[in-house]
Amino acid sequence: MASSAPRVPHHVAIVMDGNGRWATRRFLPRIAGHKQGVESLRRCVKACAERGVGVLTVFAFSSENWNRPVEEVSGLMELMVGALAREVPKLSSDGVRLHFVGERAGLSPKMVKGLLDAEAATAHNTRLVLNVCFNYGGRWDIAQAAARLAAQGEAITELSLDRAMALAHVPDPDLFIRTGGEQRLSNFLLWQSAYAELFFSDKLWPEFDEAALDEAIAAFQGRERRFGQTSAQISSTAAA
Ligand code: IPE
Ligand code: IPE
Ligand code: MG
């Protein structure tokens, strides 16, 4: 017989895209879409925890998003500071451990304090690790890891780079979801997604609900992960 119960992905990564279009379709300002995006994230965190996902990594603000209009950038920064103040106690009581991943330079001191406080306040939690990638880019991550190793005089190998990367505290993502209909990575987790299963949803992020998450997980469960091996090798290991 093949493998037993279909496994839930241990680590799910999500490019939460489509907030702006969600708002524009409703004749609302784009920031209203980002606010709705926070609601959607709250729902998704709960749903992931209930399904036994161990790690959820979300893309909240990319290195490239600084190129947006200043009002949108400042709106996103305010939203983040507000969300930290509001959401952390509940996340913590739900057993969520927060990590903020990305470049701290360029963020306001108030924001950095908020991120550090949220990490400290949730450090003891074990139910779900939530990595929020903020001012993050996959190329930044690879470059900062290499620069750190070089500064320490360490050899650059796959293993040493992996350990210097911003997500070294968790295993690589199993399932990479992008909402909003675009089929690109947009500089998210370039190194870590080498063997992630990709799932593209046409749903805009504010509409991404439990059923949409279940659809992505079901698609994942239907994939055969071969990691370079043949299908025959995989089925003989599963049968053993
Ligand atoms: C993703 O939604 C959120 C961020 C990039 C902060 P967008 O704002 O990119 O939404 P669309 O793609 O314009 O609809
Ligand atoms: C990726 O979405 C970044 C986040 C979701 C935070 P973008 O909307 O910025 O990506 P592009 O510009 O369409 O590639
Ligand atoms: Mg977008």
Indicate the overall shape: globular
How many DSSP E strands?
Answer: 6
**Strand order in space, largest sheet:** 3-4-2-1-5-6
Give the percentage of residues in beta strands. 15-25%
DSSP helical segment count: 8
Element order: H for helix, E for strand: EHHEHEHEHHEEHH
Number of domains: 1
Range of helix content: 40-55%
User: What small-molecule ligands were found?
Assistant: 3-methylbut-3-enyl trihydrogen diphosphate, magnesium ion
Q: What name does CATH use for the topology?
A: Undecaprenyl pyrophosphate synthetase
pLDDT averaged over residues = 96
CATH level-1 class: Alpha Beta
Our measurement of the CA-to-CA distance between the termini, rounded to an integer number of angstroms, reads 9 Å
Named at the architecture level, the CATH assignment is 3-Layer(aba) Sandwich
What is the CA-based Rg, rounded? Answer: 18 Å
What structural class results from the helix and strand content? Answer: alpha/beta
Superfamily at the CATH H level? Decaprenyl diphosphate synthase-like
Low-pLDDT ranges: none
Sheet with the most strands, sense and barrel status: 6 strands, parallel
